[in-house]
Amino acid sequence: MAEHVEDLTVNYEEDGVLLVQEVGKEVLSKGSWTTILFRYRDFDKKTQQYSADKFTIRRYQKRNGQYQTKSKFNISSTAQAEKIVEILSRWLNAKED
To answer: Taking a C-beta distance cutoff of 8 angstroms, is the pair 22, 6 a contact?
Structure first.
């Protein structure tokens, strides 16, 4: 667990191999409830290569001085990410009219 937002990561190592490699991080909101958008890649043990970029949104709650994961949503492909961006853009533009 982490004490500071800057220390939160999706990097995951097992037996000396980085199985989840964080390649980007954007803090969407800070406070006792923090939301972070991560860009990451999974390591394929068979091919010994990292996957294409994937994305995940994580919500953390700070309790007793430590951030704990409370929820997450994985965006499984760039196509799904593009669709989310398209829809949010359309909704935001409609709101302005």
So the answer is: no
At a CB cut-off of 8 Å and minimum separation 6, what does 56 contact?
A: 10, 37, 38, 40, 72, 73, 74, 75
Q: Quote the pTM value.
A: 0.89
Instruction: Please tell me the total number of residues recorded for the chain in this structure.
Output: 97
Estimate to the nearest angstrom the gap between the alpha carbon of 97 and the chain centroid: 31
3-class secondary structure, 3? coil
Within a 13 Å sphere around the CA of 46, how many CA atoms are in the beta-carbon half?
A: 1
CA 78, 79, 84 angle in degrees (round to 5)? 95
Sign of the alpha-carbon dihedral angle for 89, 92, 95, 97: negative
pLDDT tens readout for residues 47-82: 999 999 999 999 999 999 999 999 999 998 899 999
Tell me which residue has tokens 């995940």: 56
